[in-house]
Amino acid sequence: MKKSLLAVALLGAFAGVAHAQTAVQIYGTVDAGVTKRTDQTLAIGKRANNTLGFKGTEDLGNGLKALFQLEIRYEPDTGTIEQGAGGIQRPLFQGQSRVGLQGDFGMIRLGRGLTAFQETSTAFEPWHGLPTPAGFQTDLQVAGYTSDPLGYPGNSTNRFSNAIFYNSPEVAGFQLNTTIGMKEALGGPYIGKGTAAAPQYVTGKEASTLPYSVTATYKNGPGALYIANERNAVESRLWSIGASVMTTPDLKLMASYQRQNQENTVLRNPITKAWILGANYTMGPGKILAGYGQKSPDGVAKTKQASLGYEYSLSKRTYVYADLSNKKGGVQVPPSINTYSLGVNHAF
Amino acid sequence: MKKSLLAVALLGAFAGVAHAQTAVQIYGTVDAGVTKRTDQTLAIGKRANNTLGFKGTEDLGNGLKALFQLEIRYEPDTGTIEQGAGGIQRPLFQGQSRVGLQGDFGMIRLGRGLTAFQETSTAFEPWHGLPTPAGFQTDLQVAGYTSDPLGYPGNSTNRFSNAIFYNSPEVAGFQLNTTIGMKEALGGPYIGKGTAAAPQYVTGKEASTLPYSVTATYKNGPGALYIANERNAVESRLWSIGASVMTTPDLKLMASYQRQNQENTVLRNPITKAWILGANYTMGPGKILAGYGQKSPDGVAKTKQASLGYEYSLSKRTYVYADLSNKKGGVQVPPSINTYSLGVNHAF
Amino acid sequence: MKKSLLAVALLGAFAGVAHAQTAVQIYGTVDAGVTKRTDQTLAIGKRANNTLGFKGTEDLGNGLKALFQLEIRYEPDTGTIEQGAGGIQRPLFQGQSRVGLQGDFGMIRLGRGLTAFQETSTAFEPWHGLPTPAGFQTDLQVAGYTSDPLGYPGNSTNRFSNAIFYNSPEVAGFQLNTTIGMKEALGGPYIGKGTAAAPQYVTGKEASTLPYSVTATYKNGPGALYIANERNAVESRLWSIGASVMTTPDLKLMASYQRQNQENTVLRNPITKAWILGANYTMGPGKILAGYGQKSPDGVAKTKQASLGYEYSLSKRTYVYADLSNKKGGVQVPPSINTYSLGVNHAF
Fold it and tell me: Considering the entire predicted model, what is its pTM?
């Protein structure tokens, strides 16, 4: 494709490009590094999700735009599509697959993507939602909650399929984000209060309620707040709040809290609470990340995590990183796990 | 990719692009909407096939061109590759995967794609071959016939794998299109006159005859005709004819008829006939689609379908749509099914 | 995408592209042809691997570059991702998935790709490593050796997953290439000296040694040499040497030899030796390829292969080809197999 883009561009010029404000943009991330976990062999792994995406926007006039986004997720260490529990391949466009319209009314999209809660909350987490063991999003910030309990085996747990996504415009610092899923049957089963032989939700069963996710955010100068409420297809409910503040242009402090209620699907101890404190400190091309948090399922041992990380930017698109993390408690074996990682992240 | 295309284009310019008339073109469609079927819950679904494709043409001089096309098909509501019966994933390049040469002699391609019959006939169907329940292609126009009976489970039924595709140049309004498949074994089994335990074609069995598909089309001013003949890998044969006419620049009327003979693989009632009448009426940015058709397997109850649709173009590449459809008879449960859908279609 | 590239490029220009030397390049190959093998039906097949890739390079200043490459491999005759033994789909980015840095020190990459041995040796094989039956790479040049014995079922056998790749700069004609895999468990099982019920390496077992691959190459005017040493995850070891010389600007002669030791995983006859002689002769747009080779597993019948091929270039990116080949001996049925193929190869 190298040499011929000009030719194509010139053809475009001669053919007239007055109404051609849209193009397919190809973008993505490749992140790979070396990881050592207390009880495992040295491994090649990732810190961030790896993406290869295709997106575009078309100007329809009168402030109206059409837009789409398709995002592949993959594992660079093995070359496969991103894999979930048990090595099961996730959907090709695991990142998202959405189409919609944007205008003065905000943005409305159809398809599959992160729920409003899952998308909003990562901005208040010190590793901004990265799936690395040093990050707090996957295990602590969402307290083990899953947005997609009835999805295909292996599916990621923080997205709605068959959903409608609405983001309001930002008015006086306020924004509203809403995701509504359908009751459509997907995968399953979901054992819940049942047994493996007689699960509470059998394979192919529809949701017992309309899944939804709503967040409101507020930004004012150096400060930001959010509040979130979500209910999934098996009627688990969660509330979450968070705040961040730039105390100086270089230092961002953040905190979040979450409460989850699984009354509909567990026999006892349905409440899980979690909180996280975090900081990001920028020093020229370098950035320090730090965080501490706890998850407290009622009646089960607490999980406590402390992490420290460093990113060094080689350019706006490429940085190297080092993370170290300790997690204690909960049901993990061994009871205390250290993880070290060192790698490179390249955006394109 | 946004900012750097110019840099690349300039590099191309300096390196000389005299022979570089080719480029990879990325194109596709995202179509998603809300669907309600009589006996099912409200769902997010598609009206059109969703594609992400890569194609290119190279000028070889003397009127000769090399060309290729690779087309991914996917489901935007779940982010997966397109799925066939039983939720089985289809090939990554389900749309097509072909390479070939084009010149004064016409176009010859190798690989996998729609058969000549399946490709030709959609221009004579009021929903131009879209897989929506309102359309007539999938069920009625091809009368339940499959071009790929020995393919992998889940494969689409209107393509040949391992095939040679030839399209003649258009001469005095006439064009000839031919697809010839190999006898190569693919998937299977195909039960046919056998039983599940002893299928007529066992898994991995080669075709018992050379599959082929031939169509001739004729265009003359506002009118167009086609005639098609196809024989698949298990010796099912079909004939199909169709016609369309633009009675005014805004109104297109169309009709098609098809007869299928499955003598080689069914014990009784091997003949199925189907016919469709359709109309497309354009009013500025709006377009009305209407159709009625019947499928008559001998000895089995007739299927009757009536559909009405409306498309409203927001631009040349984006339109919103609404369809309603009723299907009666055949072996479906319930015996009468209504389907309503509302959505957006964006091409890029 | 056609018309809008200029618009995008111009936007890029206005936005400033001083640091935007990088772009995603889309590239690939489509190769399809007709093949006839002594004991099989006429088939549509491939001569070369079929690729669709995405790659890019970012200039970080001071001679340092970030780079990535993601390469899909697929089968154009069926539209599927490339398939391994038993029709099992290989990883989406089977070609490679790597990210890394390049500078005065050479190039270091992380991810999955060809081992140093597998990549180096193909330049000394008359079909430059193409997987066609006429080529010698797949069966003879690597003597049935696999670099990835513990990988997922169906995985290609000449790559390391979870690996670090280092290529030195070329100094006075010398270059060093090193690949080091991790012990990370992937797939399996590997029967080895065990049985299907009790394999030597059970599923999910880690490598019993650190896999590595090292090659040194030397170029001097018309001549080139290489020497390679590799040890895989089940402790099989191989040595390989090769040489090539351009006797005239049109004639390249080449030879290679390889010795493999499987003591750790076979009960008897652990040594396999192989050698290949080859020639490429260019005549204007045409090129003749010829080769002869033998593989000698100790205690098992020799395999002998002779091949002749012809390529005719229609442009720098497109050629048509014809190959014929005979393979005798070994354990194949029938004992002598002829293969003929005729097709087109198009790069984009």
Answer: 0.92
